[in-house]
Design goal:
This protein is α+β, with helices and mostly antiparallel strands. It folds into 4 domains: 10-69, no CATH class; 78-256, no CATH class; 259-327, no CATH class; 333-382, no CATH class. It has 16 helices and 6 strands. It has helices at 10-19, 30-38, 45-55, 90-112, 130-141, 154-164, 209-225, 243-256, 259-270, 276-287, 291-300, 306-326, 333-340, 343-355, 360-367, 373-382, and strands spanning 168-172, 174-175, 178-182, 190-193, 200-204, 229-231. The strands form 2 sheets. The protein has a 4-stranded mixed beta sheet with strand order 1-5-4-6, with helices on both faces. The protein has a two-stranded antiparallel sheet with strand order 2-3. Helix 6 (154-164) runs parallel beside helix 7 (209-225) and helix 10 (276-287) packs across helix 11 (291-300). It is globular and about 80 Å long. The mean pLDDT is 90. This is ImmA/IrrE family metallo-endopeptidase. It comes from Sphaerochaeta halotolerans. Pfam families: Peptidase_M78. InterPro entries: IrrE_HExxH, Rad_response_metalloprotease.
Length: 383
């Protein structure tokens, strides 16, 4: 019996091929696509489904006459605009779409519950003073100047404060639960959606611990300014960065390393260090943040040169790469899953399910769980 074939538009085939090889997208479908492109072979439905699954391109796209126009609004808010970031990977696209669905669902939930807009979003949209913004953030998050002295990990501490303030903070290092689709840190570190009802921050968990901490604050500044952001500055760039990004970076650094404490701490350690690099390491340990943050503060305050700063950045990136290669990818499923989901958002989902306004199937989709893992996740997060 001859299998039915389904011609794919040459323009669509060309577009699919253009998507291959970007970041983590596999290229093992290329030979078959080349046959379709040359007209040597007309694909069967099974072959189209296979290519769709391997490339993560939606099945319906293959039956269009012209390539889809995917308008990824967040791409307009890239921190660093470059040719390499113009064509987002399917991994980034799927992650953004997943987070947009969470924002949409949460907005509907809050409106139905009678909640108003979140007053933090856009509160400082016309403010440009680093000190004013930093003080506002300390106020709304209930932070003291020396908040970093808390025994709790700094990232968890700030994340919980932000969640209490109505910010959805999600984190993942892969697309959904697919470990074969790791998120590429060279493509993006984090992003923010400044929705007035359900503002969201997404952190790329493949970043270093210090990188995640900085990104969390960087994106929170964007929420306060009311501006979406796709944070893709992998190399802590100094030149060619917009005034907005310079402002967000400066505020994040001020929260992590308050200037008035930095001066005295720097002077205290520099007299007991054999090199500038050792001083930076000691100061970063004191403030519980990364070397790059301290190096940038030292650069901005005239303590080090641009050359020294660039060396610190390169060494930090090298150290990150070495650690990633030796890192064990194992771990408890529920601990990992719990770290990905905003606790407040999960309570909303559970509440909506209990009221009967959200189906279990929808709850599973929103949380990337199933009928077995969802109740266990809820139980773990309530412990």
């Amino acid at each position: 019996m001859v299998k039915a074939t389904y011609p794919v538009s040459p323009a669509v085939v060309d577009w699919v091929i253009s998507q291959l090889g970007t970041h983590t997208t596999p290229v093992d479908s290329l030979p078959l696509l080349k046959e379709w492109q040359a007209g040597v072979k007309t694909p069967t439905l099974s072959e189209i489904e296979t290519v769709s699954k391997k490339t993560h391109i939606p099945l319906g796209y293959f039956f269009l006459q012209t390539p889809p126009k995917e308008e990824i609004k967040l791409m307009e808010f890239r921190t660093i605009a470059s040719t390499s970031s113009e064509n987002p990977s399917r991994d980034l696209i799927d992650t953004i779409e997943d987070m947009e669905q969470i924002v949409d669902w949460t907005r509907d939930y809050l409106i139905a519950d009678g909640s108003g807009v979140n007053p933090i979003v856009g509160k400082l949209k016309h403010e440009t003073n680093v000190g004013v913004i930093a003080n506002y953030i300390r106020q709304v998050l209930g932070l003291s100047t020396n908040w970093f002295e808390t025994k709790e990990p700094s990232f968890n501490y700030l994340r919980d404060r932000m969640s209490e303030a109505g910010i959805i903070v999600m984190m993942n290092g892969v697309v959904r639960n697919n470990t074969h689709r790791p998120l590429n840190i060279d493509e993006f570190r984090a992003f923010a959606i400044a929705d007035t009802f359900a503002p969201l921050i997404f952190i790329n968990a493949t970043d270093s611990k210090s990188g995640r901490l900085f990104s969390l604050l960087h994106e929170f500044v964007h929420i306060c300014l009311g501006v979406d952001d796709l944070f893709n500055d992998r190399h802590s760039t100094v030149k060619g960065v917009s005034k907005l990004e310079i402002l967000c970076n400066a505020v994040a650094a001020e929260i992590l390393v308050p200037t008035n404490l930095f001066y005295s701490t720097w002077e205290s350690f520099i007299s007991r260090s054999s090199s500038t690099e050792e001083t930076i390491h000691k100061v970063s340990h004191f403030f519980k943040c990364g070397n790059i943050v301290v190096a940038r503060k030292a650069l901005d305050t005239g303590k080090i040169s641009h050359v020294t700063y660039d060396n610190i950045v390169q060494n930090a990136l090298k150290h990150y790469i070495e650690n990633r290669k030796s890192k064990d990818s194992g771990g408890n499923f529920y601990n990992t899953k719990g770290s990905r989901i905003d606790k407040r958002f999960l309570t909303f989902v559970v509440d909506s399910v209990s009221r009967g306004t959200t189906l279990y199937s929808e709850a599973f989709r929103l949380t990337d769980t199933n009928r077995h893992t969802f109740p266990k996740l809820v139980e773990r997060m309530n412990d």
